[in-house]
Amino acid sequence: MNALASRRRALRWFTGAGTAAVLAACDGGNGGSSATAASATPTPSPSATPTPTPTPTPTGASGGSCVVDPTETNGPYPADGTNTSSGLTSNALTASNVVRSDIRPSFIGSATTVAAGVQLTLTLTVVDVNTKCAPLAGYAVYLWHCDRNGKYSLYDLPNESYLRGVGVTDANGQVTFTTIFPGCYAGRWPHIHFEVFSSLATATSGRYATLVSQLAMPAATCSTVYASASGYSSSLSNLSGVSIARDNVFGDNSAAQIAQQTPAMRGSVDTGYTATAVIGIAR
Predict the structure, then answer these.
(1) Nearest of 193, 231, 171 to residue 77 by alpha carbon
(2) pLDDT band for position 135 (50/70/90)?
(3) What are phi and psi of 275, to 5 degrees?
(4) For 145-269, where are the alpha helices, taking DSSP H only?
(5) 197, 182, 177: which is closest to 276 by C-alpha?
(6) pLDDT per residue as tens digits for the range 255-282
(7) Apex CA 112: angle with CA 82 and CA 189, to 5°?
(8) CA distance 4 to 239
(9) Poorest-confidence range of 21-25, 168-172, 203-207?
(10) pTM for the complete prediction?
(11) Which residues 6+ apart lie within 8 Å of 253 measured at CB?
């Protein structure tokens, strides 16, 4: 009954917004509970200013070396308007404040919780594989992932909306998010979900995504973070039972695809990590 009440409270947040949110079904590896979340406020303006060019420069696309990222499942927890439960659809992309670079705080409703964990600053460069990896400016990237306990906001945690956000690529095709290093839940290699849209104007439903894919967290960094950072103890035991080769998402990808899907990472648990990755699209 408490869970049902929580779901109803989440739905009441946005009864005036026109789109109710829902929490999805179970993830093949997470085993988390379903719950309801809410669709939010008006669609973000397509004229939002692209994020500034970050300092780190990914090397994967320099010299025209890149591959097309494989299409991957968006999983049961996207909150992008594509999954329904009990006849209701969750779409965080319609929230007016979903365009943000720091995705650690919750941003829908009255919740302001900041996701705890090792800080990760992730720079993505979106490129056109068919034009020698030329950068694609003005593309919208929707990023989301689980918290350090392997739980997803708006689903396992219906009253939270953290670790979700949209950024727009700058003239260099780059967009940067400040987030946390994701946890590892049973049955899946640690990962980050993303969707790429040709513009912010189209980023109102996952159905219009140019690419839906995932990033694979580097094995060495996973081992370091999970072994020494506070709050990741369950991730360490879960990591021991999975591998990229056996993962049901990454397991059938080529070596070149896995290399591009794995961010280059530097830093430490104490100071946080910076990471870069290239996203290749065939236009």
Answers:
(1) 193
(2) very high
(3) -140, 150
(4) 219-228, 233-239, 255-261
(5) 177
(6) 999 999 999 999 999 999 999 999 999 9
(7) 50
(8) 32
(9) 21-25
(10) 0.79
(11) 70, 261
Secondary structure class of 249 (helix, strand, coil): coil
Separation of alpha carbons 102 and 204, rounded Å: 20
- 124, β-bridge pairs: 175, 277
What was the pLDDT predicted at 48? 43
Residue 255: phi and psi, rounded to 5, are -60, -40
CB atoms within 10 A of CB 87: 7
| Nearest C-alpha neighbor of 212 from the set 125, 275, 140 | 140
84 vs 207, higher pLDDT: 207
State the pLDDT at residue 122.
Answer: 99
**Alpha-carbon gap, residue 140 to 99, rounded angstroms:** 9
127 contacts 141 by C-beta, under 8 angstroms: no
Q: Which residue matches tokens 């090397």? A: 59
How many CB atoms are located within 10 Å of the residue 151 CB? 19
Over the stretch 207-240, which tens digit does the pLDDT of each residue have? 899 999 999 999 999 999 999 999 999 999 999 9
In our burial notation (b when 16+ CB lie closer than 10 A, e otherwise), range 155-184 reads bbbbbbbbbbbbbbbbebbbbbbebbbbbb
d(CA 198, CA 193): 17
SS3 142: strand
What SS3 string covers 64-105? HCCCCCCCCCCCCCCCEEEEEECCEEEEHHHCCCCECCECCE
Sequence letter at residue 44: P
d(CA 167, CA 93): 11
pLDDT of residue 85: 62
What is the Cα–Cα distance from 62 to 53, expressed in whole angstroms?
16
Q: How confident is the model at residue 15 (pLDDT cuts 50, 70, 90)?
A: very low
